[in-house]
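Moderator note: this is an archived Q&A kept for reference. The question asked for a predicted structure of one protein chain; the sequence and the answer are reproduced below.
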Amino acid sequence: MIRYIIKRVMSAIPLLFGLLTFTFFIIRLAPGDPMSLYIQADVDPMYAENLRNTLGLNDALPLQYVKWVKGMLTGELGMSFSKHADVSRILADTIPNTLLLTVFALFFNFLIGIALGVTTALKRGSATDHIVNVSSLFVYSMPEFWLGLMLILGVSLQLDLLPASGMHSPLAKYLSFPEYVWDVLQHMVLPVFVLGVASAAATGRYMRGSLLEVVNQDYVRTARAKGLSEFLVIGKHALRNALIPIITLLGLSLPFLLGGAVIVETVFAWPGMGKLTVDAIFARDYPLIIACTLVSGVMVIAGNLLADILYAIVDPRIRYD
């Protein structure tokens, strides 16, 4: 297993480098000037030119690429054009916020999804099965930005039950630690729900199909013939084997949640990687865009590797030699 992990990590390095190289050139081919945010009509043209020289924007594109490669090899991600700070420090401030959001959304996704899948599989053909399936399809079809806006209008503005945006209240720094944690959890409810509910609907459908396939196997019928209770038959024999395909979704859900986080964090003004990426794109902040792409690529690769590892743990027949 260790050899397999090392091999996967090493093979991911050229893939990441290719992705970042493509991003490097594609963002520079896009229309617009990173200096447009700072260069106004009353700004001295000499100042603007000096600023462009300082940031290396006047260098030829091949030279910019060589400088970027040297920086990457030394671990230097550069300075943000828009935030005037080291990119590494900006990422250190935002990555934990996105991980907090996605981990809770992932937990919500699998907790609700597996529960719905098991319920509908055990009540196949019933009214409950039909209602849950139709509801899941309806929820899965909802655009995340629309659902987020509707929840803000209904839950936050009309009912005033939960905060509408941000990660914490403006005066959160004056709260005690338990009060601060409670404040953050309140701000997390709506974005976590929006980010996880569509995934939970899809997970429930996968879980239902997988469990229906397993309950018809010979070993499940044998367990029932031995007189075991239905709880033990489903929980001990059927559910574990039905979870094997669901484990694959764990790794595949990570890039899906990261993609959704771009929209959800923007709608709820959550200070994470998604909102940072959108702000960097609009500001044409080249170093920050590449850094966000790097982090997203690493998380996607890590998610897929985690799925492979968990797959082997759940199913002892699988070995990565």
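Archived answer notes: The first helix runs from residue 2 to 29.
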